[in-house]
Amino acid sequence: MMSDHSAAPRPLAEYGHAPILLLIIGFMMLQPLSTDLYLASLPNLATVFGVPASTVQLTLSVFVIGFGGAQLIIGPLSDRYGRRPVLMWGLALYVAASLLCASAQTIQVLVAARFMQALGCCSAIIIARAIVRDAYAPADSARVIARASSWLSLAPLTGPILGSYLQVAFGWRAAFVALSILSAIVLGAVIMRLPETNVHKNPRATELRGLMANYRHVLGSRAFWAHVLPGALSYGSIFAFISGSSLVLIRVLGVPTQLFGYCFAFGVSGYLCGTIVCRRLLPRFGPSATLRIGSTMSLAAGALFLGAVALGFAHWSVVVVAMFLTMGAHGLNFPVSQSGSVTPFPQQAGTAAGLMGAIVMLAAFGVGTIVGATFDGTLFPLAATACALGVCIFASVRLVEHKEAP
């Protein structure tokens, strides 16, 4: 299923001895697992700590805020000091924060530990993107991320199901113990097998003047926005389902809690399919055409979801199919967006990756807020949000193409 008809992209000769792709997959898996592994425990957390559901939701929103903000710092740090030391310190923080989550006696400590966990997780994701730029030829970067994303999709595919079983068997703390073990394994692999890939260290990357210069350089590039804008909106479209699917499936449509993980996993399998299709399309049509196809799929998925709801179809399968299609479109959009936003900046790869990640998390935070605020006990708000985002993704790609045509 994970095989590719074309040859796997190989790292540059100086990194051929290291399992770069496997390490990148391990880094990228931390983000979805940090959220999905404990989704099934959210109702139990409210009961254990005696707090309303809105307080428990802070463990999600604070993670997003911490993850988004840290990207503005971690990227430049890796540009100055190198990928390896920043990554090791970040993973060590993640291990410690996960253990603190597992031992938290109050919801306040859990929320604070989740913020710390986000900082460590952020280092893994940002540096994974930067390492792709460092260790692979620019022509291969989108294929590398698409290949990694195919494996990455296994995390949100199995995470909620595994988390459900951990919750039933051992309670909510088990998910964070599992994250501690996983991140410790990844840290050990980095120490033993990851070489330094930043050969263009910039001693001024963290100086305020140099930092502002790098930010202006990256943010002033049309190529950066041509990829970041649809990528952030595409991530927002899947975050609408991440934050809203449990509400509509369990509360509105009456899906049993123990079956929610399977519904979520089926929807996420669309992302796996999308990344596999992306890997087939990139060699044949190139990144730009692949992004156009993906944005068209985003528009179609949102429009079909809203149309079905408007016609009165209120069934769990409508939500799951809409989620599958949206995730599939994201599997095409996001690998191209990630690689395209970093590739033009060999000396500011960390800064570009950090800015892209911060913008993506800002979009996710905004979408999650809208989904929570507009929930009214029906499917319509979620469907309307998904459709609006599909329109915006489609328009952003065409708008930038139109401006760049001359």
Automatic annotation (TrEMBL):
Task: Output the Gene Ontology terms for molecular function.
Answer: xenobiotic transmembrane transporter activity
Q: Name one GO biological process term.
A: xenobiotic detoxification by transmembrane export across the plasma membrane
- Topology of this chain in the membrane: Multi-pass membrane protein
Which InterPro entries does the entry mention?
Efflux_drug-R_Bcr/CmlA, MFS, MFS_dom, MFS_trans_sf, Sugar_transporter_CS
Show the Pfam families listed in the entry. MFS_1
Superkingdom is Bacteria
Q: Where is the Major facilitator superfamily (MFS) profile domain?
A: 20-404
Where does it reside?
Cell inner membrane; Cell membrane
One Gene Ontology cellular component annotation?
Answer: plasma membrane
PROSITE patterns to which the protein is assigned, alphabetical = MFS, SUGAR_TRANSPORT_1
For this protein, the parts annotated as crossing the membrane are 50-74, 86-105, 111-132, 172-194, 232-253, 259-278, 299-329, 349-372, 379-400
Q: Which residues form the signal peptide?
A: none
Gene3D superfamilies membership: Multidrug resistance protein D
Keywords (A to Z) from UniProt: Cell inner membrane, Cell membrane, Membrane, Transmembrane, Transmembrane helix, Transport
User: Family, per the entry?
Assistant: Belongs to the major facilitator superfamily. Bcr/CmlA family.
Q: Which NCBIfam families match?
A: efflux_Bcr_CflA (TIGR00710)
Protein name according to UniProt: Bcr/CflA family efflux transporter
